[in-house]
Amino acid sequence: MTIGFTSVAVPSAAADPAGGGLVWGPCPAEYALDPGTDQCGTVTVPRDYANPAAGSIDVLITRRRAEDPGARRGVLFTNPGGPGGDAIASNNLLAQALPEQIRRQWDFIGVQPRGLTHAGAVECAVTPELLAAMNVGFAGGPARLACDGGAPGATAYITTENTARDWEQVRIALGAGVIDIYGLPYGTILASTYATLFPQHTGRMVLDSAVDRDWMWNDVLWHQNDGYKARFYDLMEWIAANDATYGLGDTPLKVYQRWSDRIVEEAGGNPTVASPPAQIGDVPPGLENIADAYRAGIDLTGPAWVQFEAFVRRLADPAHTQSASSIYALTRQTLPARNSWPMVARVIRDGIGALPGAAPGDVTENQLDSIIRAQMMQAIVLCNENAVAPRPERLPGWLFSTFVTGDLFDAIGYGYSAGAGCAGAPPVTALPEIGNKGLATAPLVLQGLRDPQTPYDGGVQHARDMDAHLVTVEGGDHGAAIQGGNTTVDTAITDYLLTGATTVTRAPEAPITAPL
Fold this sequence. Notes:
With 516 residues, the protein is α/β, with parallel strands linked by helices. The chain is built from 17 helices and nine strands. Helix 4 (140-148) crosses helix 13 (365-384), helix 7 crosses helix 9 (252-267) and helix 7 runs antiparallel to helix 15 (408-418). The chain starts with 37 loop residues before the first strand and ends in a 9-residue tail after the last strand.
């Protein structure tokens, strides 16, 4: 059923295609954007909207112009998520991921979130002690201290509401009556915050992989734990189904064992995520008559055995931990994107050297600085507006998964939920409530059923909060539009942005388009 849509005309952002009073020019060299299609400018905004006399910052914005200027319909603000995602670097990438007709008819606008480079970046003293603390989950307190040391309170203005208000200043500078929006996970919160504050200037919003506002922020990472494990088993099953290509085993358990062997070979420590359930193909020859008992025994003892094995290896040598394995980290990182699964399968089969180009960790100094700053800004936003009380009863789980087993599938969620993630960094504000306060067109929410990064029920709640039209996407890809190859999702986005409505309520899982 289509919920709350209207096809009435709304004021067009195309009213001033010249871009108001903005002066456009080349983008900073570090972004390597095409000057033929991408331009940049700056907008001066208050550092503190509650006290505009307290100074200002310059926020960088980028514009990728509509490919068909004669058919231009308006501006589409984009945000890649995070918090901490660089909106300048991602704007063109998101444009390329969205349907071709949208690229032809909209100017894509990326507004750099405050706190990042070119948007009131704060000076942060990055020390080995800070990095060590962040690596074990103490993110918020050390990050705030590192960035507030030279200017106490400097990070207090790095919040979702202030960034949404920056969007409004950019809209005014563009001379646009309304803005359309495409936002990925954190971008869905940012977009809905803007729409709640400025409904009269909000056009059509595509909220891709939305988040429950009431999970902000400790519960967001907690809810990811089970989703990442479920998605890991999906990966094992997919590789087993493609045994003819990869030769890693024809059951998920056999693939898991090959994966585990690679991690031990690389890092000395074995993974502690429980192995997949045993299947008939896992029963050794000669034991067929007790196959059910054999499988039950494997399933019963397997989870405890991998924990014990990891504990013994760590006792023998504290450096023997799964978290030191590039393959382990790569596996978890790529679970939300099926287009990366063929690469993971090749790495399990051939080793980390199978990766094309630079191996993980081979990054330039500038890239490393950007990664660290993004992580720090994410921690600062999460803690600045965290409204979920810590649960001390989860501290043992965090301590065990962080300092004993190095289990990333548990440590991240446990750390924030238990309170370690924001220890020493209490909230400075509250994330505004979100809601549909008279939007001319109801938003569109795209939500993956098994997305581990933004669980399905959180997106459903976000759709309810915004009175949005929900499209359920099969599978577990994070970012329904950016996976590529999903014609049903593309149709829903195109219909919605062009007309304000779509009849699509369900979309199939996107095919894997990367070469096997």
